[in-house]
Amino acid sequence: MLQMRPLPSVVRFTKILGKVAKLKHYSAVISLYNQMGVSRIGHDVCTLTILINCYCHLNQMGLSLSVWGKFFKLGLEPNVFTFNTLINGFLLENRVVQAAGIFNKMIAGGNCQPNVVTYGTLVKGFCMKGNNRAAIQLLKKMEEGACKPDLVVYNTIIDSLCKDTLVDDALNLFSEMMCKGVAPNVITYTSLIHGVCKLGGWKEAIRLLNEMVSKNIYPNVRTFSVLVDTLCKEGMAVEAEGVVEMMIERDIQPDTVTYSSLMDCFCLRGETGKAKKIFGLMLSKGLMVNVVSYSTLINGYCKRKMMDEAMMLLREMSRKGLVPNTVTYNILVDGYCKVGKLGDAQKLFSEMQAYGQLPDVQTYAILLDGLCKN
DNA sequence: CTCGACCACG
User: Fold this and answer.
1) Nearest residue: Cα versus C1' of B9
2) Is the Cβ–Cβ distance between A296 and A260 less than 8 Å?
3) Residue A296 counted as domain residue
4) In this predicted model, what pLDDT tens digit does every residue of A269-324 receive, in sequence order?
5) Residues 52-111 of A with CB under 7 A from strand B
6) Is residue A295 part of a domain?
């Protein structure tokens, strides 16, 4: 497209950026944008909004704001998408004050009023802060006002309540939502199933599964992964494997998350051999193995005090371009502490910082515990 | 052509 003459319009380029962004390849979008030779092709409100959204998802709010500045330099008017994107970006980084600032700018501006996505984003922000009460308060305001909550807003709160094991509240809200004529979808049911499973409500989970299918809403890979994970955490490895087989029979392909749950299951039972086999299966199926998959397996070896194998995996993931994170290092530091190799633990503690992975409160708790017990 | 909701690791 860059070599075509005349050059395709900015809209045609932006359509592609939008598609790539939808696939969550945010860095790719930025590099494509940079290759566009922006001055010749130009950019419009959509292009810049996509770009802001990519920086938001990469936790680069500084760069998001520099794109935001371009609007004014170019005399472009940010629209409701742009405002919503920025608010979401700040909330993702827990910067509530800045998010509120953008929200106020939006209202003050006059030509761009908050919509259901704006309020839904704020609801999510409250939920992320653990403030379900405020989220529900805002929901009530929406129900009474002109901007009625939609399925996404209800799902956000239902999921948050489930995560806080307030499943009864979630089920009540679920009924309320349906009374108001908002129909649930697979996401609603997956959150609820997750919630009841966490409380050991297997019967209730089966009831919800039957109910959703009776409404022609079908469980997907995420729904099944929740079931697999719950069975695993209950130590029911055989049953978990059974669910995975059921998925394959139904032509729902287990993904990286499904298999990582299963790996964790075997790791917790000390069956690292079986876990490693699943890891190999993932690779042979061409599934992405990511930092979490590696960390899960590393955790398995650490728990069995097999530190050499764990370290080999750490080096292997780095060779593949995967960046071990704080959780990965915490697992390993804990492993070394537990086998009494405090020197190695401290070496990793330095290494993680050298690689820009900052220790968190858990890292220090692990090290303190290790030092005290030795 | 642009925004918000569901699954795995310490």
Assistant:
1) A296
2) yes
3) no
4) 999 999 999 999 999 999 999 999 999 999 999 999 999 999 999 999 999 999 99
5) 53, 79-82, 84-85, 88
6) no
